[in-house]
Task: inverse folding
């Protein structure tokens, strides 16, 4: 979390830094700040809230500085206050620093600099760095960073500048927070993620873990901290799907991304079916190795885990491999037992989630094989795995994941089919049949999005229940992870408490929550558990609660069990999750809009979670 950008070149850079920050805002929007560096002095502006507030705060700075850097913050150490907003500047005004990550030994570092007489102006971990720099500087900024780096524990990517060297930015990385360099003609960018500068250049180089980068307008040096050796990194072309996004006429990114799902699903499937046969390039394991797998563990966080939970059912169904799924932050502290026959599937749209990365690393150390499933080419999870499979959803800006979820579920479906095909647990003809139905999904999602009567019905439901104090979501089998996802969407953007439960488990506790003011959302699509969920809905109705059911079109009995029915098109039960989640995304969206909330930037959240 937190987004950082730096620029050094020939152009006045205030606008470049601000617009870069706007494209990084999804990483955190508690506050934002920038510095513009001129020979002998620097200008700083900071503001609480989104980057547009920083834009206002910086309006009075008329500097034509051609070196600058900015930060958008997701608060970890220190409250959301201007004094805790990066960049931090040394008392003599010569040095400025900003960071994405954490100095784990910050208590010790802060105490140390305070003892030596520095006045700490913030509660952050980052500020100690600027005082250490000011103390240790002997005329060479990069060398100063080299000497300080071993003192810093944790995981970070930081940038520093000094007004004595107004031609360079020095950056450093430890562990997973990313740092990417953009190479333009006579100008260089440094950022957490390429979209920050993609409108200016597509030529990128990745700063590796344990490196210091020294960036000037015409040259970039990468040095390994351990031995100060020069490192070569190829210049690559940034992934086109990361094209800086615009709302394209939609009122929010989330709504736009909900509508991009047919394309995201289509693109995720397209390249992988050849004449009815599946090919998963990049999987990183031979067919022989896949045949030897006797256990699968799926790890991820939040929405990514929910797609893994769908995958769990499908892998068991088609590939007949024992599969479990767990929250990465919990699993990493379990004493998991592995061998080379265990396959770990690590799912992360951003490819940066700290807990998912840690879980992967532990799994590999213990001998498991790991495949990453991510939306970002070359991201940390992709690099940390034996193989990487990519969803093709394009850049997702809305903090609540939508199109990346349906793309992940699609990819998990393909992977489950592939495992089954390779292991011979599903007949080739059946794979081809399912493939044919899979290819219909984008059209069916489009049908849901185009269904004006469904939309009107969702409006009625949103009007009726937007001010209720609690929603319960109930599902069984493949409907359960979809309920978990629907409940997460609603709570994260509307701030209404929600719970998602296995419908059969309801009578063991949550039934006590039901009353005449409780909306209960159920995924009750046609499947072998439909009758079971129908009787659970009767138990709900007997308590006076209001049932909103997602059901398969043509189902004539569902009206007996629900007050509101959201019909979705028919497909085989294994593929229903991709369709069933769409009305739940739209319902969450409509409720949040009615409550006057910012759906793209829900409070306290960030799109990438690079801290534990
Ligand atoms: C919810 C949401 C989060 C993410 C989670 C993992 O809408 O987006 O729950 O799914 O933070 O993020 P990734 O997939 O980037 O690892």
Result:
């Amino acid at each position: 979390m937190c987004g950082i950008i730096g620029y050094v070149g020939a152009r006045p850079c205030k606008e470049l830094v601000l617009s870069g920050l706007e494209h990084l805002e999804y990483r955190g929007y508690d506050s934002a700040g920038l510095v513009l560096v001129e020979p002998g002095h620097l200008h700083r502006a900071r503001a609480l809230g989104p980057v547009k507030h920083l834009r206002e705060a910086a309006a009075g700075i008329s500097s034509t500085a051609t070196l600058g850097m900015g930060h958008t913050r997701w608060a970890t150490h220190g409250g959301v206050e201007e004094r805790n907003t990066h960049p931090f500047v040394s008392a003599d005004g010569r040095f400025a620093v900003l960071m994405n990550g954490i100095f784990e030994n910050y208590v010790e570092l802060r105490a140390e600099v305070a003892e030596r007489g520095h006045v700490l102006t913030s509660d952050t971990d980052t500020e100690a760095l600027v005082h250490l720099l000011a103390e240790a500087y002997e005329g060479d900024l990069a060398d100063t960073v080299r000497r300080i780096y071993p003192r810093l524990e944790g995981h970070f990517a930081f940038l520093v500048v000094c007004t004595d060297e107004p031609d360079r930015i020095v950056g450093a990385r430890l562990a997973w927070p990313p740092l990417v360099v953009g190479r333009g003609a006579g100008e260089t960018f440094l950022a957490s993620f390429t979209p920050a500068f993609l409108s200016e250049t597509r030529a990128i180089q990745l700063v590796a873990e344990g490196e210091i980068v020294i960036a000037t307008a015409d040259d970039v040096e990468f040095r390994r901290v351990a031995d100060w050796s020069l490192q070569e990194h190829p210049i690559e072309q940034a992934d086109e799907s990361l094209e800086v996004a615009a709302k394209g006429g939609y009122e929010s990114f989330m709504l736009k991304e909900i509508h991009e799902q047919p394309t995201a699903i289509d693109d995720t499937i397209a390249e992988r079916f050849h004449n009815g046969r599946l090919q998963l390039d990049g999987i990183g394991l031979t067919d022989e190795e896949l045949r030897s797998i006797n256990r699968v563990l799926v790890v991820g966080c939040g929405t990514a885990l929910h797609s893994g939970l769908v995958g769990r059912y499908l892998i068991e169904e088609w590939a007949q491999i024992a599969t479990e799924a767990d929250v990465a932050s919990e699993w990493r502290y379990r004493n998991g037992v592995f061998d080379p026959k265990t396959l770990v599937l690590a799912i992360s749209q951003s490819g940066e989630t700290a807990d998912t990365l840690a879980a992967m690393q532990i799994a590999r150390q213990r001998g498991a094989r790991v495949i990453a499933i991510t939306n970002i080419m070359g991201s940390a999870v992709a690099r940390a795995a034996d193989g990487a499979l990519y969803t093709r959803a394009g850049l997702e800006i809305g903090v609540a994941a939508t199109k990346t979820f349906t793309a992940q579920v699609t990819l998990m479906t393909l992977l489950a089919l592939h495992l089954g095909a390779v292991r011979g647990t599903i007949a080739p003809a059946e794979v081809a049949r399912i493939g044919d139905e899979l290819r219909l999904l984008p059209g069916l999602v489009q049908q849901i999005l185009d269904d004006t009567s469904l939309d009107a019905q969702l409006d009625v439901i949103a009007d009726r229940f937007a001010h209720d104090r609690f929603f319960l979501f109930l599902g069984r089998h493949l409907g359960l992870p979809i309920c978990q996802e629907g409940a997460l969407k609603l709570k994260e953007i509307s701030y209404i408490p929600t719970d998602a439960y296995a419908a059969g488990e309801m009578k063991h506790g949550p039934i006590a929550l039901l009353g005449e003011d409780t909306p209960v959302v159920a995924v009750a699509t046609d499947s072998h558990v439909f009758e079971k969920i129908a009787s659970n809905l009767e138990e709900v109705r007997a308590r006076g609660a209001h049932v909103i059911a997602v059901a398969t079109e043509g189902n004539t009995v569902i009206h007996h069990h629900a007050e509101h029915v959201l019909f979705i098109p028919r497909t085989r039960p294994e593929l229903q999750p991709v369709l069933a989640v769409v009305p739940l995304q739209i319902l969450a969206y409509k409720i949040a809009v009615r409550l006057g909330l910012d759906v793209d930037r829900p409070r306290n959240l960030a799109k990438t979670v690079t801290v534990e």
